[in-house]
Every structure is written in structure tokens, then in C-alpha cells.
Write a structure and sequence with these properties.
Distance between the termini: 34 Å
Number of strands: 10
Largest sheet: 2 strands, parallel
Radius of gyration: 20 Å
Helix content: 25-40%
Shape: globular
Number of helices: 11
Strand order of the largest sheet: 1-5
Oligomer: single chain
Order of helices and strands: EEEHEHHHHEHHEEEEHHHHE
Structural class: mainly alpha
């Protein structure tokens, strides 16, 4: 989850022979359900109207469709080196969750609501409409795979393809169906304090305001039902990607690491096929490893690398630093904690339907 600076702005397998009430087949039930839903849905996405044929809450999804969607997602990531923005998209969808709200989809979370205006136009989500657009062809080819599943799949695949841990993902998420099901603005974390010296604010589903970065981060992540270990582990994903001033209000227009010159990939090769710009936390920002934790506390590192208040506090706060130091010493320890935290984040607020193994 790329923190923002407030600018002066998957398993129960159903037999295919099962029939539903009055001999309506399972497949027919899906069609009826979708048809009824389509009659009720209204709303548009931030960047283009969402065709009604693609707003569904199907009773299940086939594993073969999930496999096909993953193949397409992998291809997009490899072609465009856009993995980091997919991580940010998924995290900003799931990161709205409030554990104290028990009603779906009012509690927010990984429900695909980020594709709708107003949520996609929240300040913290600047630049993410393009990420949704990149994944639209996947939804078009596999309409029974929910947007929520596609967003979370893209994030997990981005991590693994960049050399990170394999995430034990669960699929079958039900989508939010209208803009009215978006979370209020203000649930996502800040990286730096605002003009009055405070992090966060009174907006969202609960106040995240604090005069300290540590207090603010705890208010945001505790509201999701996550703890200190998850805060530090998930922050470690900043090893992957960049911050942009026109999105988060942070970062330089470009640095020597993001100026279009070749960047290292997980397989050891290099590439210059990416959109130049922004500031990275690490030199090899298309590789997922623990270098975030080795870079942040090392003041001999290049000054063009990003070190925000919310990064540095991981090493100065007593509780956070226990995990930060552990992850600095061991990539394996980081990967183990990160994989669990990512899975938990990806399931926040989600309602799951069945995945049918048709392979």
C-alpha cells in the first residue's frame, strides 16, 4: 500500500450434477441471479462506464476461468512491468476495511469497489484508474471472475513474479455492485504529516488522526484488524515500486534509478521497458526482496532513494523495530511474515462464493 501524503489535497467443490430448487440447474441459477442483479445496478467507474454485462455476483466461479485470468494477468505484468501499481490497486481496495463494521459490503475491504467513482477518485487513489483499465481485458474475457478477485490476483502475481513469496490466495470474492457501496474517503494511511503536523484525519469510518507516524499507522491497521507485525511486513512491499509526486504527493519527478535506464529483474536480467519517473525506495525496484529493510536504516545509501517518516519510524518505534530488524537480517523471515500478512489483507471484508474445479 503506497502511503500517501495529504497534499494541500478461494472451497467447496460443487458437483456439476447438482440441481437447484425446482430442477433449476446451477448454471441456470447463475444466469437468473445475474439477470436480476443487472436490473438493479446503476453507476459508473471513474474512467469509463462499466457495461452492465460485466457487473455480476455469480454464484460461483470455475477454476479454469481463474487459471485463464491468471495467465492473462501474468502476461500483462511481464509485458508492461506494471506489477507495483497492481499491488497498490489491490491494497487500496482492501485497505478500506473496518473490522468494527459487520455488514457486507459496508465494512469495505477487498470487494472491488475501488473501480467506482467516487472511490477511484479519492486522493490516495490517484493514478489507479489506469491500473483498473489495464485489467479490463481480463474481466472481458472471464466475466465470471469478479473484479475483486482480479485485483487481488494481480497483486499476488506481481509479488511472486518479482521474486517474492507465493501467496496462498483464496478466490471467489463477491463484488460490490454500485458506487453507493464505496467506502468513505480517509481510511488509508499517510506517509507524512499534513500542514498542521498531524497524520491522518477524522474522515473515513474511524479517525486515523495522530501527531505521530506510529500512532497513525496503528490506528489505520488496527481498524483493519491487523497488528504491528503486519504493519511492518506490509510496509516492506515498498521494496517494490515507486512513489510519484502527482499521485501521493511524494517523490521526485525522476531519479537515477527511475529515469528510463535499465533496471534489474528477479531473474537477473535487466529491462528499460517501463514508464520513467518517480522515486523508488530501493535501487532494484522491480525485484521483491528485503532490501527495503536494509536500505531504510542505512544512511550511506544514495540520497535519491526515498525514506519517508512512515518508513523511518519502523526502526525507531520499539515494537515496530523488533520486526524491522528481524526482516533486515533475514529475507526468509520477511517472506514468511509478508506472505501471511498479504493473504490476510487480501481477504479483508470479502464475501466468498464457491470455486468449482472443472479441470
Amino acid at each position: 500500500m503506497h502511503l500517501r501524503h495529504r497534499s494541500p489535497s478461494y472451497n467447496t467443490v460443487f458437483s456439476l450434477s447438482v440441481t437447484i430448487h425446482n430442477s433449476i440447474t446451477f448454471a441456470t441459477m447463475k444466469i437468473v441471479s445475474a439477470t436480476l442483479l443487472l436490473a438493479a445496478v446503476t453507476g459508473t467507474s471513474a474512467f469509463a462506464p462499466i457495461p452492465a454485462s460485466r457487473i455480476t455476483t455469480a454464484l460461483s466461479v470455475f477454476k479454469s476461468d481463474l487459471d485463464g485470468a491468471q495467465t492473462m494477468v501474468d502476461s500483462i505484468i511481464k509485458e508492461k512491468n506494471c506489477g507495483p501499481v497492481f499491488v497498490r490497486l489491490a491494497w487500496h481496495d482492501s485497505g478500506t476495511y473496518d473490522v468494527n463494521i459487520k455488514e457486507f459490503p459496508k465494512a469495505g475491504g477487498a470487494i472491488g469497489s475501488i473501480r467506482f467513482d467516487p472511490e477511484i477518485n479519492h486522493g490516495a487513489n490517484a493514478g489507479l484508474a489506469g491500473a483498473v483499465k489495464l485489467l479490463e481485458p481480463v474481466k472481458e474475457k472471464f466475466p465470471d471472475v469478479s473484479y475483486a478477485d482480479i485485483f487481488q490476483m494481480a497483486s499476488a502475481r506481481a509479488i511472486e513474479l518479482a521474486g517474492g513469496p507465493k501467496i496462498d490466495m483464496k478466490y471467489g470474492r463477491v463484488d460490490a455492485t454500485s458506487p453507493e457501496e464505496c467506502s468513505p474517503e480517509g481510511n488509508l494511511p499517510d506517509a507524512e504529516a499534513g500542514p498542521e503536523g498531524k497524520f491522518g484525519g477524522a474522515g473515513g469510518t474511524a479517525s486515523t488522526e495522530s501527531t505521530s507516524a506510529a500512532g497513525h499507522l496503528r490506528k489505520v491497521f488496527y481498524r483493519m484488524g491487523l497488528g504491528d507485525e503486519e504493519i511492518v511486513a506490509l510496509s516492506g512491499a515498498h521494496t517494490f515500486g515507486r512513489a510519484y509526486a502527482d499521485r501521493s504527493g511524494l517523490g521526485a519527478p525522476k531519479t537515477k534509478f527511475t529515469d528510463g535506464s535499465e533496471v534489474k529483474l528477479a531473474d537477473g536480467s535487466t529491462t528499460d521497458k517501463y514508464t520513467p519517473g518517480g522515486s523508488s525506495w530501493t535501487e532494484d525496484w522491480l525485484v521483491f526482496d528485503n532490501s527495503y529493510f536494509t536500505t531504510i536504516p542505512d544512511y550511506t545509501k544514495d540520497v535519491e532513494l526515498l525514506k519517508l517518516t512512515s518508513d523511518k519510524v519502523l526502526f525507531t518505534d520499539d515494537q515496530f523495530s523488533f520486526y524491522a530488524e528481524k526482516f533486515r537480517r533475514s529475507k526468509d523471515e520477511f517472506f514468511a511474515s509478508y506472505a501471511k500478512a498479504h493473504k490476510a489483507l487480501s481477504e479483508l471484508g470479502s464475501k466468498f462464493e464457491d470455486v468449482v474445479d472443472d479441470n
